[in-house]
Amino acid sequence: MGRLGQGVRAAGGAAGERLGRLRDYLMAQPPYKRIGLPLLWCVGAPLAVLLVWVLILLPFTPGVADLKQTRAAKASILVSADGKELASFEEGLQERVTLAQISPHMIAALIATEDHRFRDHHGIDFKRTLASVLHTALGNPQGGSTISQQLARNMFPEEIGRARNINRKLKEMITAVKIESAYSKDEILESYLNTVPFLYNTFGVEMAARTYFNTTAAKLDILESATLVGMLKGTNYYNPVNNPERSVQRRNVVLSQMRKHGMLDDKRYDSLRRKPLRVSFSRQAERNPTDTHFTAYVRKWLIEWADENDYNVERDGLVVHTTLDSALQEAAEKAVERQGNALQIVADVEWAQSDSGSGSAGGYAGMHGSITPFEYFWRSKGALVNSFIRETPEYKKAIESGDTGALALKRLRADRAFIARLRAAKTRLETGFVAMDPETGHIKAWVGSRDFHKEQYDHVVQAARQPGSTFKPIVYGAALGKGFAPNRPYRDAVMNIKAGDGTVWRPTDMSGSSGNMMTMREGLVFSKNTITAQVMQDVGLPGIITLARGLGIRNSKLESVPSLALGTSPVTLLEMVNAYSSIAAQGEYRKPVFVTRITDRAGKVVAEFGSPAPERAMSSQNAADLIDMMRGVINRGTGTAIRYRFGITGDVAGKTGTTQNNTDGWFIMMHPKLVAGAWVGFNDNRVTMRSNYWGQGGHNAILVVGDFFKAAVAEGKVDTAALFAGGRRPEPVRQEDNPGDISEEAGEMQQEGVAPPPPPELDPDDMESEEAMPMEGERSDPPPPPPPPESEQNAPPASLDQ
């Protein structure tokens, strides 16, 4: 210790001696040198360090060759849970334009606000940089980047980095100087205005002009230009669509900068700043040949995520890991295609002639080549045809150009190409399908229509339709939650039910009422409206709505009216399948998950999205009892096709659904490891399946789910030995045990004492006889006789062969 102490004292003495000599030297100098030399050292030392730092960073910034070529961007991709590529972002929303094709207002607003000495510096505005440092030190952060620096950041986000630190700023400055040596000022402006991001996967001023103002870059006026330039400070924060008040404030800051730098006089500025924000937002189409409804949904979500997290989905090479199972997705797509095509043939043939008949899908397929699809529908519904026409953009355009309603109708009905498009759109049968894992909430398969490239409207998450009897399990689940036993008896009889407004409702069933006592279990198995309505009365609508929300119907509005119990309040397919998944998960709700994580091009995880904690919606015992009641739907109720047509022997439960006039067909089935549901119908609910047999969910939507599950079992994706809690393996299916078809009544309740709604009013200019205006190419003979009685239409087909 003694030697160590001596060493420290010796070192301290030497340092003190040197400092003493330095002090003596300074004291011997003139006064100005005594002050100047220390100051010079304080400034020079950091500058020397900065110079060394710049020299070190120089090789790590893009070179002139890189600037000339602009490195090839790597598109972000979406992959399935098993690693197969689903879609990519190779084609973004960008259209390059020359500087001459950009409004002078846009260029003036940009320079005045972002870099008013742009024409004078060589990439770095030292005066502005020092001012921004000073303001930031005083607690008022300000940006000091020139347009060239911002362009460097846009062109090379990975090389320069995203972290807000000195290292990034120096790289940005070095690259900006290189850009200035490689490009002219006009080339820099043009490149910047073509690459700057404007949200919604939109890059460059041309696409921004189309997206926010429905115009072109060349036609942007001064207010529109100021609004877009204002977004550059924070595209999300100053988004004129979501944050209009902030956008107006920022736009006016841009206008004030233009006034400050002599581009506007005081009078013009004062007039402009008072004008309202005029946005004409139209998100640009971004369909990709590999897109499906699922990838389009994830694509939209990813763009918003990337905007908020400063990523470029076109150039940053992100890998988005989704929950989709490629084998299950393929099975779903094939089921939708196969069964959707077969059901389209059924609809085509049944609506082709006055006597629709009733037969098997195979029989209809044999007739399809000799009929004109939907011919009887079009010839017998003249008023509806005119309504369709009046709702088209073509009709509205004709009226705006001065045509009368009658003249516009006559012209459009004579337009063969227009009528062909209208017929094809209105009579195309659609299908939505989704499957999810009830234990995790992971989406495993998603098909939004029969063909994404013909129909982008997503029947999984966009279309809200009446769920019919698929809503009934929620009513019975609420009853179980109130302490009712599955065997609680009710009389199968038509009852008067008073609504809150005093009107009387009388729910009925297609099969009629027996007057006998039935249990709640039987009421659900045989989809009895009379029983369900009485259960609803005993439970109360508030309890039913609360359970529906808890299970997963969280976005759609649920009307608090008696008919809610029979599924008259529109919901989405995803919400309904989510609700059934919550039941299958023993009463625990899990928010649907479609992305698990995002990695960068090097495989590093940049974001993870774990499954949210489950929320208890109903007790596990009540969920088990409800599942057991719904097993009966598959074994002896309206869902027997699952066992006897598709041969599925696992522990499954589910429910069919049908709405008024065969408008919507539903079927959702639960397995311990997979829940799947399908909807079948037409986009326009004034077009429906014709016969009551093929219009039922137990005869249309069930085919899609059954086909899917059969393929999933064959692929080994569904374990038929898996059991629900307290479940047991079902007995082998024997054809002689088939209970036959059970009819299902639609969800509409008949209201007494209220006059029926009046027919839609005709356009005053359209008072001609509808039959006097046949479509081009049609016969003008008298309309055919009415369709056959319901008793004939309800007859089951000769077979279920398909």
From TrEMBL:
Give the primary localization class: membrane
Where do the Glycosyl transferase family domain residues begin and end?
A: 83-258
- Which reaction is this enzyme known to catalyze? Preferential cleavage: (Ac)2-L-Lys-D-Ala-|-D-Ala. Also transpeptidation of peptidyl-alanyl moieties that are N-acyl substituents of D-alanine; [GlcNAc-(1->4)-Mur2Ac(oyl-L-Ala-gamma-D-Glu-L-Lys-D-Ala-D-Ala)](n)-di-trans,octa-cis-undecaprenyl diphosphate + beta-D-GlcNAc-(1->4)-Mur2Ac(oyl-L-Ala-gamma-D-Glu-L-Lys-D-Ala-D-Ala)-di-trans,octa-cis-undecaprenyl diphosphate = [GlcNAc-(1->4)-Mur2Ac(oyl-L-Ala-gamma-D-Glu-L-Lys-D-Ala-D-Ala)](n+1)-di-trans,octa-cis-undecaprenyl diphosphate + di-trans,octa-cis-undecaprenyl diphosphate + H(+)
In terms of domain of life, where is this protein from?
Answer: Bacteria
- Subcellular locations according to the entry: Cell membrane
Bias class Acidic residues marks the residues at 738-747, 762-773
Pfam families found in the cross-reference section? Transgly, Transpeptidase
Tagged with keyword ATP-binding? no
Name the pathway.
Cell wall biogenesis; peptidoglycan biosynthesis
Basic and acidic residues: bias regions: 728-737
Keyword rRNA-binding attached = no
Annotated transmembrane regions: 39-60
- Residue ranges of coiled coil: none
Keyword entries, A-Z: Carboxypeptidase, Cell membrane, Cell shape, Cell wall biogenesis/degradation, Glycosyltransferase, Hydrolase, Membrane, Multifunctional enzyme, Peptidoglycan synthesis, Protease, Transferase, Transmembrane, Transmembrane helix
- The residues covered by the Penicillin-binding protein transpeptidase domain are 432-668
Stretches for region Disordered = 727-802
Q: Where is the composition biased (Polar residues)?
A: 791-802
* Protein family according to the UniProt entry: In the C-terminal section; belongs to the transpeptidase family.
> What PANTHER family does the record point to?
BINDING PROTEIN TRANSPEPTIDASE, PUTATIVE-RELATED, PENICILLIN-BINDING PROTEIN 1B
This chain's protein is named: Penicillin-binding protein
Q: Which organism is it from?
A: Massilia rubra
The top of its lineage is: Bacteria, Pseudomonadati, Pseudomonadota, Betaproteobacteria, Burkholderiales
